[in-house]
Amino acid sequence: MLDVKVTPATAPGGWDCHAHLFGPYATYPLAGQRSYTPPEATETDYRALLARLGLARGVLVHPSAYGTDYRLLLDALGAQPHWRGVLVSADASTARMRAWHGVGVRALRFSHRSGPAGNFAGSALLADLQRLAPAMADAGLHAELWTDCKALPDIAAVLRALPVTVVLDHMAGFDQRAGIAEPGFQTLLKLVEHHPVWVKLCAYRNLRDASEPDTGKMFQQQLVAVNPAQLVWGSDWPHLNLQPEPVTTVLMDQFVRWADDPALVRRVLVENPDRLYV
Known about the structure:
Blueprint: E1 15-19, H1 43-53, E2 57-61, H2 71-79, E3 84-87, H3 94-102, E4 105-111, E5 124-125, H4 126-139, E6 142-146, H5 152-161, E7 166-168, H6 183-194, E8 197-201, H7 217-226, E9 231-233, H8 248-259, H9 262-276
Parallel strand pairs: 1-2, 2-3, 3-4, 4-5, 4-6, 6-7, 7-8, 8-9
């Protein structure tokens, strides 16, 4: 097995493709109506994290706790023009999307999950994506979708028909107990293999009940086997609503160990996100 620890030389020019910023709250207060109140996780904190990870670029995902106040994310992109952003909007005009693209936004995020969490407060939904997709394509934006494998068989045809690339967060919420033969995960593999569907390799939220953290290795390896060209890695920093809080460098070490191939590590951390977030 490849024995690699994360260092600045692991993947120079690499990306963390999923992170959130919060605060400073004196300058960027949270929305009055929100479902959670996280501790501050500032741009300064995130720059320090990227340095520890040995990565150069980040993708900031707008969190629901800020409602439709995008100032923090847009200001961060202004200060760090080599970063990229993902916003949440159910009603943006084409002109506004183009303006966002001009300052580094590359996607809008939507939510469609199985069970009671399907209509997550503060999220734009799958129906919004279907309505906005033509304008998004015109503005050069892709879609990022927070979903889970249980929901995928019912929406796979919708995703195939969209005129935009779709990126699935958190490895599409695979069920580690059901295993790789589970129909939803098999649907995910087909989408990644045959359609412009990408996956963020971020397994830890799906492994909270696993007695062995490396349970997620086989899910990552299956995705790599069908299409390594449409995979990126995301830290999901600052790891909201989890105790104990995972160590981000350990999560990246885990991805590197599971990859067991320096060329694959570079592809996922550098080459693929260079294409997706150009």
